[in-house]
Amino acid sequence: MWSNTGPARVQREINTAMHMRSVNGEPVDRGFKLWLIDESWSNLCAEIEGPPGSPYEGGVFVVKILVPDTYPVVPPKVEFRTRIWHPNVSPESGAIGLNILGKAWSPDMSLRTILMAVRNIIAIPDMATPFDDDVTRQYSQRHELFVRTAKHWTHRYANGPNCIPEFDAKIQTLMDLGMYESLARSTLSKKDWHVDKVCHNFSSLKRASSEERA
């Protein structure tokens, strides 16, 4: 039964992933850390470094990995716990659109395979399997704005280096109207940072809600 051999395999894969120094004589740039949560082989956590040259460079992203009893026949469930503005990741739930976590999975793959694939897709989004329509539209149609938005989210949620005061000021405008910071950031990002439009819609909703209560 896979449930009996799972713990040993997972521990072996963690050790291999974290101690591999080279592949075919070439040094390995892991770009991630991986460990068990509460010594549970089915509950893992990883930290993935933002790939160099991407909007996520300098950030560190936490990813949660849930390994099923049927692993490696069935792939783990992988979700971002650090919020990220990316076409293949839900900005709300952290769910990932990655083909090897679905139909393309093979029992020959490993936790290292998954983490390398996640890091690769962070660097180069897979536009054949987009997850979020708003992020995908911005990536395709307003790419420069997408890059700035991704850097802003990386700064706010993943300790990235790129502060964008213009975006912070627009978020503060909505917060002054009573909107929570995270909702303000998400809404403005989806609306290409058109703060006047978002303010108008939010004020209208607040006014309608007040009239209903009256």
UniProtKB/TrEMBL annotation:
Pfam families: UQ_con (PF00179). Signal peptide: none annotated. PROSITE patterns: UBC_2. Residues 11-159 form the UBC core domain. PANTHER family: UBIQUITIN-CONJUGATING ENZYME E2. This is Ubiquitin-conjugating enzyme E2-22 kDa-like.
